[in-house]
Amino acid sequence: MEKQQDLISVIIPVYNIKEYLERCVDSVLAQTWKNLEVLLVDDGSDDGTEELVEELAERDERIRVFHKENGGSSSARNLGIREAAGRYLGFVDSDDFIEPFMYEKLYRAMRETGMPIAQGGRREIDEEGNFLPDICVPPDEREVYDSESFMRELLLHKGDCSFCTKLTDASFFGKYRFPEGKLNEDFHVLVKMLPEIEGIVSIPERVYNVFYKSGSNTRTGSAAKFSRVYGDNVDNADMVTEIVRKHYPGLEKTALRFGLYQRLDYMLHVPIEDMKKGNVQYGEIVRYLRKNRGEIRRNRELVKKEKVYLLLFSVMPVLIRKVHRFLRNVR
């Protein structure tokens, strides 16, 4: 261990997760990087988790506990950011767990490359312990992306936007907070942050384990919950398009493709009963598709199947949605 290690603050939002929290916290405390603090932010738990966090704090002086009224994961993270004392920030979801070398490897990568953010690979694991297909594939060897290159990775659905797989210089959270009441909040913050940083270093090691627990709000959910996710994704797509126009004009076509793709994703999942005039966002998406038929046809970064679906949704959205649901049920 170095004579004087920089302090790393690890923020863990906690809500009714008694069964898995201890595994999560133990994996953070087991880090080879010893100079860290763990901020457990209890977001109004009422299943005994609120007592467990206090018990865990008694076992290790590096744990600090905060209790608040329920306000969601972003609200809990934001409280943790305000209270964190570390030079670097990490975030871990309370049902996930991390490898013991995670923060040391990320820290070393940051110091050796001068990048303000480092990220590692992730594993997707189900309740039976089976590895699921990769959502984001880590590089074969350490790679440095400048901010524009990483923005392109995100827009092509190749980059990992999660702050849970990252270690971040805390100074960049001086003016940024996670949007409360929204989903896909990591993407929202990261794309705003990118124009202000030199880049991101990505290491090949898989350091973060994403645990897919049945019923988890962040992993699964009802049709209503999913439609909210897709709606927030459309809002984020419009936001990132404006960022790209201002800072990365060479990526404008890629950003337009991203916005069209997110709208397609929304249309393929929105409940048919919600496809009516009273649904403001649905109406705006249909109008957007009709207005941008020329862009849909011309955009070289959309594949043929995506173009066909988008054009059909611009003409007869309800019928196409019914046909899609029928075909999916048949399969």
Please count the helical segments: 12
Calculate the terminal CA-CA distance, rounded to whole Å. Answer: 55 Å
Percent in helix:
40-55%
Strand content: 15-25%
Q: Taking Cα atoms only, what radius of gyration do you get, to the nearest Å?
A: 21 Å
Structural class: alpha/beta
Order of helices and strands: EHEHEHEEHEEHEHEHHHHHH
Describe what you observe in this structure.
This protein has about 325 residues and is of the alpha/beta class. The chain is built from 12 helices and 9 strands. Strands 1, 2, 3, 4, 5, 6, 7, 8 and 9 form a 9-stranded mixed sheet that branches. Helix 6 packs parallel to helix 7 and helix 11 packs across helix 12. The longest helix is centred in the last third of the chain and has 25 residues.
Briefly, what is this?
This protein is an alpha/beta fold and 331 residues long. It has helices at 18-29, 49-59, 73-83, 102-113, 147-155, 185-193, 223-247, 252-269, 280-291, 293-298, 304-315, 317-330; strands spanning 8-14, 36-42, 63-67, 88-91, 97-98, 117-126, 143-146, 166-169, 199-212.
